[in-house]
Amino acid sequence: MVILLVLTFQSSSNLAAAYGIAVTGAMMIDSVLIGVVLFSLWHWNKAASIAVLAIFFFIDLLYFSANLLKVPDGGWFPLLIGAIAFTLLTTWARGRKLMIDRMNEAALPMEVFIKSASTSATRVPGTAVFMTTSMTGVPHALLHNLKHNKVLHERVMLLTVRIEDIPFVTEDRRIETKDYSAGFFRIILRYGFMEEINVPTALADIKGIGTQCKMMDTSFFLARQTLLPSARPGMAIWRERLFAWMLRNAESAMEFFKLPTNRVIELGSQVEI
User: Which DSSP string corresponds to 92-107?
Assistant: First the structure.
């Protein structure tokens, strides 16, 4: 990509124009982030915060506006890259929210499901772990498993992994469990964004859910969604198709959570967004 960039711009003056826009644009973004920190994290006095930010923005705007003259000579390139990155990130965030909201629309309350299924379905030995992003309702993978296989495991865990906005999570906040009775448990694992996630290791350390969770007796059920772009309100069709492409190419949950490959079962479903 660097070689292609050099061959495209051909001259150091054009590259300098692109570099100037990139640096001054980054300075502007840093000033915005300073504002977020002052107002949202440090809770500074508003008058003092505005006075400090005004100094930064005044200097940054001078530099950035001066470099705008270089947009035709190569400054357009970092602006294009920034626009592409911004589009991808906002499409992913918005698409994930829409997908989860659509799936939660038909979510069945857990208590109702347990009352109905725990006595009518055949229970088989072992532990079933259903990965879910929602901390309420019945996961789609659990409904599909019951629909197709007509069985429930003796112990059913609904597992949600949350990445907190802090580098590390203390051990006393790591695990949260809820016993629904009849062998059903909801488990929430919390990690900081600097920590490595290892679900099997965490499950082995959980207390209060019966016998220790052994991998040879545990099956992990993952839901794989096939997205169907539609005219429903939410995003433009082209962004829905872009999000569907991004989701197909995203890292597998099996790899991200360090799940044993021979203990994972994926169940597909179609979701309109």
Answer: HHHHHHHHHHHHHHTP
Structure tokens at 109: 């309350």
How many other β-carbons are positioned within 10 Å of the β-carbon of residue 92?
Answer: 15
Query: Distance between CA 107 and CA 98 in Å, rounded?
Result: 14
Chain Cα centroid distance, residue 191: 13
- Residue carrying structure tokens 């995003």: 235
> Token pair 């999570």 is at which residue?
169
Tell me the pLDDT tens digit for each residue of 37-96.
999 989 999 999 999 999 999 999 999 999 998 898 888 999 999 999 999 999 999 999
What DSSP designation does 217 have?
G
CA distance 42 to 25: 25
Task: For 72-85, write each residue's pLDDT tens digit.
Answer: 888 899 999 999 99
The Cα–Cα gap between 68 and 56 comes to 18
Other C-beta atoms lying within 10 Å of the C-beta of residue 229: 18
pLDDT (average), residues 226-241: 84
The kind and range of the H/E element at 156 are: strand 151-163
| pTM attached to this predicted model | 0.78
Give the C-alpha distances (Å, rounded to integers) separating 115 from 112, 129, 149, 183: 5, 19, 19, 12
271: left (phi over 0), alpha (psi -120 to 50) or beta: beta
